[in-house]
Design a protein that fits this description.
Length: 121
Amino acid sequence: MNLEATQVRYDLSYLNQIFQGNREMINNIIQLFLQQVPQYIHEMEECVRRNEPLSLHPLAHKAKSSVSMLGIKVMEDDILQIEQDSKHLRNLDNLPHLVYRVKENCQMVYIELQEQLQRSA
C-alpha cells in the first residue's frame, strides 16, 4: 500500500480550536480554501510564465493564511518561500519549481478537503 496516498495533508486542529468544533464554520473555511487558493496558484503560474516575480508576492501572501489555518504543512514552507523570495527578488531561478510543487500539493489537498466536506455533510 502506498503510504503517501493515504497520508492526510491537512490538520483541522487549529480550526477546531478557534471554532470550538463548529462544523459549519470549519466547512466554510474549507470551502473558501477550495474556491480561492487554486485560483491564486493559477495566477502564480501565470506570473512565472510572464517572468513577473514581484507579482508572486501578494498572491503567496493571500494563500498563506488559508494554508496555515488548514494546517497544510506540505505547502506552508513553499508558500512562505515564494512570498519572501519574490518580495526580495532573490532565488528567482527556484520560484518556478516552488510554484509547481505548491500546485501539485494543492491538487492533492483539494481532493482530500472535498472528501472531508462530503464526510461532514
